[in-house]
Queue: 2 jobs
Job 1
Amino acid sequence: MLFQCQKLILLIRAYCVKSLEGDLWLLRKFSDCTTKFVVYKLELDFQNMVRRRGADGRIPVRTLDRGASSSAAAAEPTGYPGGPYDTSLLMKYEHHVARHIWFGEERGPKKELKVAGHGLKLTSRVPLALPPQMESWVSRSGLASLQRTSLNKIDTNLVSAFVERWHLETSSFHMPFGEMSITLDDVACLLHLPIRGIFWSPQDVTEELAVELAVDYLGVSQGQAQSHVRSCRGSYYKLEWLYDIFVHHRAASSWAYATRAYLLMLVGSTIFADKTFTLVEARYLLLFRDLDGCSGYSWGAAALVTLYRYLGDASMYSCKQLGGYPTLLQCWIHEYFPTVGKRGENWNPAGNCGLPRAMRWSYRQGVLKVDDLRPILDELTPTDVIWRPFEDHRAWRVFDEICLYRGCLKWGETVVPYLPDRCLRQFGYRQYVPSPPLDCMMATDIDVDWISYHQSVVDVIGSSSVATTPSEVVDGYLEWYYRVSHPRLVPPHRNAPREVPVPVYDAGPSDPDWARVSTLIRRYLRQVNAEEEDPQFSDLFEALHISRSH
C-alpha cells in the first residue's frame, strides 16, 4: 500500500512537471493533501474500505446487510430503476422529476425552472434610508433585514439542480451521501429573521374583503381599490401598486399607510414571493393591521414553510416554476457547497460586522447548465460540504435549541414537516437512521407542540452523540439510505462510463482523505475538459483510478 500511495503522488507530480505553468496550481493544491494522505493510509487496513456501485448507482444488495442470510441477499430488488428499492419512504417518487431524469426525460424544452426572483426590482424600490417614523415600525417588525438580503439575480440552473433532489416527504435534499436541509438555524443566520414567535392562521379573504382591507389599511379610495383588485383577477395586490402607494403616502407623511404598503411589498418580493412573479396575496395585509404587534410572528418559520411548500411543488415533474425566496436557497447552497456553482463574495466572514450572512454573496453568471450540474452533484462526497458554516457567525446569531424541534411548522393553511433528525450532521451530531417522517395531515396541536418543543429536542439528540468528524454517520446509515433513496440522478453509463467507487464514509476519520484526493483530481480534470484518451492527462487519470479504488 505504501507503493500505491507513493505512486499516486508521483503521478500527480509527473503531470504537473510536464504541463504548462498554469498547472502549477495543481501541484500546490495537492502538496499538503497527498503528504497527509500517505501518513493516514499507512496506518489503516485498506481491505473493504470501498464498495462499488452497481449500474443504478447503488451498493449491490449483497453488501447492504452484513448479517443477512444468503437467500435474503440474493433477493431481487424492487422499486424504481435509479430510484428507491424500498418505496415506503418516498411515496411520491412516481411523480418526482428524478424518476424522469433517470430516463433522460426533461420537464420541457427548457430544463431549468422559472424562478421568482425580485432582487433587481427590490434594489430600486428600497430607499437608502426610511423616514424615522417608518424606520421604527419596520425595525420592530423583525423584517428589516429583508431590505438588503436579496441577490440581484438567481442562478436558475444551480437552484434547479438542487430542487431536483428535494423530497417533500422528508423536507430534505437527497444527496449522494445522505440527506441535508435548510433549517431554522440557516434562516436565522442567512436572513436574521426571528425564529421564535407564533404561527399565523389567516381568515379567508374574498375580493370584496381585499377591497375593504386596501381602503382601511392602505388608505386608498373605494373606487381605486375595486378597480385594482378586479385587474388582479383575485384577492391580490400588485407589488408595483404597493410601491406606488408607499411613495404617495411617504410624501404625504401618512406613515402608517406607507409602512403597511412597504412591508407588504417587502414580504411579497422575498419570503412570500409566489409564482405569479408580480402579485402578493391580499390576506397578508392582515399581518400588518397592528404595526406594533407584527413582531410577535415567527418570520423565520414563515419563510421556511413557504419555501418548503414551493420546493415540494417544484420537485414534481409536471411543475416548471419555483416560488418562495430563492435567495435563501441559493445562499444556502453557497454556504454549504463552496465548490458548486459560481458566486461573488462581498466580504469574508471574519470581517463581518453583524450583517445577515446572505449579504456575503453576490450573483455571478454561471456557465454550467442544469444537466451539467447533475453529474457534478452525483459525485459530491461529504468532504465537499462545509457542515457547520455559521460557527463564525455566533457572535451575531447564537444557536437556538428550538432549531432542533421535530414536528410540523405552519403558516396560514400550509403545514410542512420539519425534521432535523434527518440532517443531524448540520448540527454537529452523528447521523443515525431517522424515524419515519411525520404525517402533518394528522397533526392537530401544532401550536402547542411548537411552544412545548423541549421534549422533541431531547428525542432528536438523545439517540445521537456529538460527531467526532463533521460527516460522521452510524453503522448501517448509508446502507439504509441507498435502499430508500436515490444516490444519483444520472445513470453512470451516460456521463461517467467508468464504475464509480463509493467510500464507506463512516469507516474511520481518515476515509475523507481518499475522497478528498479523488474529488480534487476529478474537479481539476473537469475544469480543463480533460479526456481520458488524451495522453497529456494519462498520469492524472491513473492517479484518479488509484484514489478511487482504495
Job 2
Amino acid sequence: MAKNYGNVYNVEGWGEPYFAVNKDGHLCVRIYGRETLPGQEIDVLSIIEQATSADGTRKKLQFPMILRFPDVLRHRIGSLHAAFANAIKYTGYGSVYQGVYPVKVNQNKDIVQDMVHFGYDHSYGLEAGSKPELLLAMSCLTKAKPGAYLVCNGYKDSAYVALALAARAMGLNAIIVLEMEEELDIVIEESSKLGVEPVIGVRAKLLTKIPGHFGSTAGKHGKFGLPAEKIYEVAKKLKALNKLHWLKLLHFHVGSMIPTTDIVFKAASEASDIYCALVKECGVETMTTLDCGGGLGVDYDGTRSGSSDMSVAYGLEEYASSIVQAVRLKCDYHGVPHPILCTESGRAMASYHSMIILEALSAIPEPKDDDDGESTTEQLHRRIRDLSSKLQPSETDTAARMSMSSHAVHIKKHGIEMYKLGKKLSKSVTTDAHTIYNYHMNLSVFSLMPDYWGIQHLFPMMPVSRLNEKPTHKATLIDVTCDSDGKVDKFIGDAETLPLHPIDPKLGGYYVAVLLSGAYQESLSNKHNLFGGPSLVRIVGTGHDGAFSVEAALLGPTTKELIGTMRYDVEHDINSVIEERAKEKKVWEMVGKLVENGLHTMPYLADYKPPPTV
C-alpha cells in the first residue's frame, strides 16, 4: 500500500471533514463532508490539469488560481443550521435560529448569491457594513425567502439610512443597527422624509473580551457599539417620541475567532441581560431578535486548542449549544420570551469552500550565513544574553536618572536586535541538519494572502500531488513582487519552513495549495506592483466516481484592467503614446504585438520554464 504523507501537514486536523489525500497521493476534496462516499472525492490535480488545458469552449487559464467548491458552501450552511436546530430541540428553546452572511467576508457575486440560494429554506439573510455592500445585498435578497434579515451595520450617514429604508419599502426585512447615539436622529429624519417606518437594532458594547489580535477592538474600549446605559437611553428617547415599537433587535460582536465556548457563553449571557432589561425595565415589548454577531472561528492549525489566533477549541455543535443555553437560562431567569437567534458567521461559512493554487517556478538553496562572529548557536545565545542584560537598569541607572521615554527607546533598540538574532538562531538550529530552499512561486502575497502580510495570519499549505512520496526539502515561499515582504516564512505549527518535494519538470508542474482561504483574502487583496487577483474556477461534483464539472473558468484581471484602476485611460495614456514613439523608430510592427499581448493577459508569469539545472 502506498505511503500517505498527508499527516506531515496535519490535513486530518484542519482539513476535517472536507480534505484528504487519495490513493494516488493527491489532495482531494470531500464536497459533502462526512457524508461523502468512497470514490466521490474530487482530485485537485485533475481540476488544475483541466483548467490549464485549452479546449473548444474556453482558453487555457493562467496561474495563480482559486478553486471554488460551492457544494462545500452548501454543506457548511446546512451544518450550521442543523447545529442550531439540534441545540434548540434538545434544550427546549422557545424560538428559532435565523442567521445572516456578512458580505464583507467575501463580496464575490457567486458566493453571495450562493449563500442566499443555499440558505433559502432557512431564511438565511445578509449583513452589510457600507453603502456598496447594502446595494449588493438588496439585489441578492430579492431572491431570498421573504423575511430573511438584511442587517445594516457600520457607521451611517443619511444616504446609507435612506437606502436601508428603501430596502424596507421594497419589502425586504432591513434592520438598521445603531452604532452611535446620533445615528438615531438620522433615522428619524430620513424616515420622516421618505415616509417609511424603520425597524432598528442597537449594537451593545460588551465587557466580555477575547484574547489576542482579534480581541483588540472589543470590550469597553471597542470600536463599535453603545454601553448598556446608553442603550437604555436610546429606548427612553424612542418611547418619548412614541416610536418604541421601532426597536426590535439587540446586536453584539466580541471579535473574530472566539477561541473557546466559555467566552461564547459569557458574551451571550451578558448580552441576554441587556436584552431582558430592554424588555422588562424599558418596556420594549416589540423586541424579537438577539444578533450574536460573528466570532464563530476556524481551526486553521488543526490543534482544536484555542490557544492562539489560529485555533478554536470547538465545532459548530458546541458553538450553537453555548449560545442557545446561555440565552435560554437568562431569559428564563428574567421571565422574558426567548428571542430569535441570529449570528453573522462569515469566516466559518466561506473559508472551507475555496483554495488558492500556487505554481512553483524554481527552487534555489538558501546560502549559508557568513561567519560574522555570531553565527554559531553558542555565539548567538551569548549575544542574546548580553542584550537581555542591557534591558535591565543597573543599580546606578535608577528610575530617577532614566526617564520612561528613554528607557522605552532603549528597549525598542535592543529588543528589535534580539528579535532578529532570535530568528537567526532558529534558522541556525534548523539549517544545522537541513538546507533551506527558496521556492519561487507565481504569487503576490499582497494580492492573494493579504492577511498573512498584514496580520501574520497563517493558512494551512501543502502540495497538491506527490503525497505518497516523502517531502525532503524544507522550504520558504518567495513571491514575484519587488518587495522584501513578498515571502512566506511562517507556517502553522510554529514552523519556519514548509516540507516540499524537489521540483522535477519531468513530472509536470508542482503546485502548492493554500487551504481555508475563502474568507477575507479577496476582499482585502491589493495591487502591489500591479499584480492583481487570480483566475477563478468553479467546480461542482456530479455525485459519483469523483467526477466533476467545471461550471465556470474565468481569467484573472488583465494588465489593461489593472492599469485602468489607477485612473489611466489605457488607450490614450498608454497604447497610443507607445505606438507614436514605436512608429517614429519604425518598430511598431514588433512592439505593437507585444503591447497587445501584455495588455490582455494577466501580469503573472506565464508558461515559465525552470532552469534545467533546478
